[in-house]
Amino acid sequence: MFLHHLTALLALLITTVTSIPADQQLSKRANGARTVMYIQTFRTTSGGKLSLLPLTQQKTHITHIYLSALHINSQPGDITLNDHSPNDPIYNPVWSEAAQLQKQGVKVMMMMGGAAKGTYPRLCSGPNGGINEAYYTPLLQTLRTHKIQGLDLDIEEPIPVSCPLALLRRLNKDLGPSFILTLAPVASDLTPREIGLSGFNYKDLDRQAVAPNKPNGKLVNWYNAQFYNGWGDGSSPAGYNSIIANGYAASRVVMGVLANPNDGGSGWYGIATYSRTIAALKAKYGGDFGSVVGWEFWDAGERDSPALRNWEWVKMVGQGIFGARSGRDLLVGSDGDGGGSGSSTEGANQDVPGVGEVPWPDLLSVLMGKGVSDLEGLRALNRTDGDLTKAADLLGLGELVGDLLDGLTDIVGGIL
């Protein structure tokens, strides 16, 4: 009798599992491991229309995408996705394909902010630094109109911690706990050094950003840490490990890497190097590893050796995350990938967590020669678009500008 009931129960379980639609299965999977891509350029490298559909058609293991970048402009209600309104007909194909991805269980989200300044000061320009409804209400309508499932706050200008905290609380209140909330700090902002571009302490934010209706009681589902442009090094697990040692759960830290050297100032590595880093982090953290996000999709893998199609790059990352391996994975993983996008040796910064190949090595060297730390110098150069004189002023070294320029001349002369 017991065997009869057990057999019937197993049959019922098998029927139930196989009857779950693919999108629901993917949705459940996405709550754990994830493969994430930013999409900002909506054309191919040859100038044609970029299609998002290969992300699911080619079984890349994609779970989340960020359509980037959303900007809140000076006139209330003037919101642009890059250079056009999200409602512009130019984006009709994007919304059509995004809906198809959603039917397959992929979470379609947006990234807001980035290098362009002004979005967050405007949103937080209400009474006493609170939410300004004139800017916030159109943002909320945009998210609802296009059925966006999450928002990534990429804050690259100094603002008080009260601003992201207010936004997180309000978005959670208005859109509910299933709406995914993430932030995109530079990796060093999450390490014990806690130096970056946002102007506030992320541990302070994370301590205050709590909600009983969110996973682990945290308003921020996870952090997309930028491991490039000098803020981190994707060729080694050291920087990621230092973030986890600083108190962040591995499940809430996603390693952000460049998918093509043309998409960032420095810090790109080939897929073979990223695969080794992923393997090391998977071995250390297992299913708790927060995974990888690539910037960005349109030209991903084009500079790898051998060159990859964009969906192939995503698929290889996804296979590293979800454990599937193929002959092509092993072949590419064994080839040289050219190291980083500059002159530094692959893995050269393994013993210095949170420090990677920088966009302005000579300028940074001059500032460090005057006693400035690497990350402080990098932040000043970033905020001044690589202007040594302005960076020196930011650092209180204005009176030493002449000496700094002499130092730069010496470096250039040595190279020549």
Explain how this protein is built.
Helix 10 (271-285) runs parallel beside helix 11 (310-322), helix 13 crosses helix 14 (374-383) and helix 13 (361-368) packs across helix 16 (401-415). The protein folds into 2 domains: 23-334, TIM Barrel, CATH 3.20.20.80; 361-415. Helix 8 (202-208) links the parallel strand 6 (180-183) and strand 7. It is globular. It is built from 16 helices and 9 strands. Strands 1-2-4-5-6-7-8-9 form an 8-stranded parallel β-barrel, surrounded by 5 helices. Helix content is 40%, strand content 12%. Keywords: Signal. Residues 333-354 are annotated as: Disordered. Residues 33-324 form the GH18 domain. Residues 1-19 form the signal peptide.
The CATH architecture of the largest domain can be named as: Alpha-Beta Barrel
Inertia-based shape: globular
- Structural class assignment: alpha/beta
Number of helical segments? 16
Could you give the order of strands across the largest sheet?
1-2-4-5-6-7-8-9
Low-confidence stretches: 1-31, 325-354
- Supply the CATH class of the largest domain: Alpha Beta
The name CATH uses for the topology of the largest domain is TIM Barrel
CATH superfamily of the largest domain: Glycosidases
Number of strands: 9
Report, as a whole number of angstroms, the end-to-end distance.
88 Å
Number of domains: 2
Rounded mean pLDDT score: 86
Helix content: 25-40%
Range of strand content:
5-15%
CA-based gyration radius: 22 Å
InterPro entries: GH, Glyco_hydro18_cat
Keywords: Signal
Protein name: GH18 domain-containing protein
Pfam family, one: Glyco_hydro_18
